[in-house]
């Protein structure tokens, strides 16, 4: 059983995996302290943070001296050690395996493909001062579309959530990634009602913690729309 003195998490809420960890902690009322690491300011490359995580990435969790990196591992640790409701990461082997199946797939599909669109439409233009390359963006959107198709046909099928009848860590990781292109004003689920309904279902399950975590992304979206 984990000590309930509280944990520390190092986060930047513009980061999709950081939002997933933040939402999980808040929604499940797990005692914690947030340490903000501003990636845009290079705070992840300072000597102190590099000592904590040599990979220089967020999120990072510290629980009584136990340091853990990678959002997938952090979420599973929290779900297991802090008595989160069982539906998040089921104990029954087949149901747990379904969550693991998605999270293994997630890192080579949902995450890079949704992130690439955001990087091309928001980050690169800001960093370089150059407009988005239309041909490269079109290829990125095509790759993302293939991933969205798999999410619908393989994972959602006829069930309400990615791994069954209730929200799991899989849905949390996925929804945070699929929200990211919204920072550039692009709703990638606009033409996919099945996934859009799933997103609303996940958002309802997460309640206020969802919008609280995505506030920084909403502000970015509003700025991008104001430029149009």
Features of the shown structure:
8% strand; four-stranded mixed sheet; Glutaredoxin; glutathione transferase activity; 10 helices; alpha+beta; glutathione transferase; EC 2.5.1.18; single chain; Thioredoxin-like_sf; 228 residues; Glutathione S-transferase Yfyf (Class Pi), Chain A, domain 2
What do these coordinates show?
The chain is an alpha+beta fold and 228 residues long. It folds into two domains: 7-84, Glutaredoxin, CATH 3.40.30.10; 93-226, Up-down Bundle (Glutathione S-transferase Yfyf (Class Pi), Chain A, domain 2), CATH 1.20.1050. The protein is built from ten helices and four strands. The protein has helices at residues 16-27, 47-52, 71-81, 93-106, 110-128, 134-156, 169-179, 193-206, 208-213, 215-226, and strands spanning 7-11, 32-36, 60-63, 66-69. A four-stranded mixed sheet has the order 2-1-3-4, with helices on one face. Strand 3 (60-63) and strand 4 (66-69) form a beta hairpin. Helix 1 (16-27) runs parallel beside helix 3 (71-81). The protein is globular and about 50 Å long. The protein starts with 6 loop residues before the first strand and ends with a helix. The mean pLDDT is 95.
């Amino acid at each position: 059983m984990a000590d309930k003195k509280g944990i520390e998490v190092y986060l930047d809420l513009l980061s999709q995996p950081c939002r997933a960890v933040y939402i999980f902690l808040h929604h499940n009322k797990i005692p914690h302290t947030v340490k903000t690491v501003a990636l845009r300011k290079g705070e992840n490359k300072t000597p102190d943070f590099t000592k904590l995580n040599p990979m220089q990435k967020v999120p990072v969790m510290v629980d009584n001296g136990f340091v853990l990196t990678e959002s997938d591992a952090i979420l599973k640790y929290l779900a297991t050690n802090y008595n989160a409701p069982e539906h998040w990461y089921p104990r029954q082997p087949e149901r747990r395996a379904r969550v693991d199946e998605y999270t293994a797939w997630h890192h080579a599909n949902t995450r890079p493909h949704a992130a690439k669109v955001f990087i091309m439409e928001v980050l690169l233009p800001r960093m370089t001062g150059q407009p988005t390359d239309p041909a490269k963006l079109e290829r990125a959107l095509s790759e993302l579309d293939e991933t969205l198709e798999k999410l619908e046909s393989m994972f959602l099928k006829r069930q309400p959530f990615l791994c069954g009848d209730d929200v799991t860590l899989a849905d949390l990781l996925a929804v945070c990634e699929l929200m990211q292109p919204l920072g550039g004003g692009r709703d990638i689920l606009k033409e996919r009602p099945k996934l859009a309904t799933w997103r609303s279902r996940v958002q309802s399950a997460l309640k206020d913690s969802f919008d609280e975590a995505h506030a920084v992304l909403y502000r970015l979206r509003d700025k991008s729309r104001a430029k149009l």
